[in-house]
């Protein structure tokens, strides 16, 4: 704060910090979505075309989300209940 030319009020400083935080999250989210899209496209391209569309979708989701065992220990993903699959 001492190195800044303009003196900000507390409200202005908080607004700046919030804007910086939101901008950083947006960039990371964009990168995650892009990586997931690339991975999904690759899985579609190399997937087994002899199986049903439902099975391919299930396999793709499992590969993108990772094994269920890992999902329980991941702290960067929200918890969700997975239905029982065959």
Element layout with pairings:
Layout: H1 10-46, H2 53-65, H3 68-73
Architecture overview:
- Helices cover 65% and strands 0% of the residues.
- It has helices at residues 10-46, 53-65, 68-73.
- It is built from three helices and no strands.
- It has 86 residues and is mostly helical.
- The N and C termini lie far apart (59 Å).
- It has one domain (10-73).
- The model has no long low-confidence stretch (mean pLDDT 78).
Keywords:
86 residues, 0% strand, mainly alpha
Quick recap:
This protein is 65% helix and 0% strand. The protein is built from 3 helices and no strands.
Query: What is the helix tally?
Result: 3
Q: Oligomeric form of this entry?
A: single chain
- Span of the ends, CA to CA: 59 Å
Low-confidence stretches: none
Shape: elongated
**Structural class computed from helices and strand pairing:** mainly alpha
Helix percentage range: 55-70%
Largest sheet: none
The portion of residues forming beta strands comes to: under 5%
Mean pLDDT: 78
Based on CA atoms alone, the radius of gyration comes out at: 21 Å
- Domain module tally: 1
Count all strands and give the number.
0
- Following the backbone from N to C, one meets helices and strands in this order, namely HHH
């Amino acid at each position: 704060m001492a190195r800044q030319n303009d003196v900000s009020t507390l409200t202005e400083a908080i607004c700046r910090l919030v804007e910086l935080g939101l901008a950083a999250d947006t960039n990371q989210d964009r990168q995650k979505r892009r990586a997931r899209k690339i991975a999904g496209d690759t899985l579609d391209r190399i997937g087994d075309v002899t199986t049903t569309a439902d099975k391919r979708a299930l396999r793709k989701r499992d590969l993108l989300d990772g094994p269920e065992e890992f999902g329980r220990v991941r702290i960067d993903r929200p918890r969700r209940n997975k239905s029982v699959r065959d």
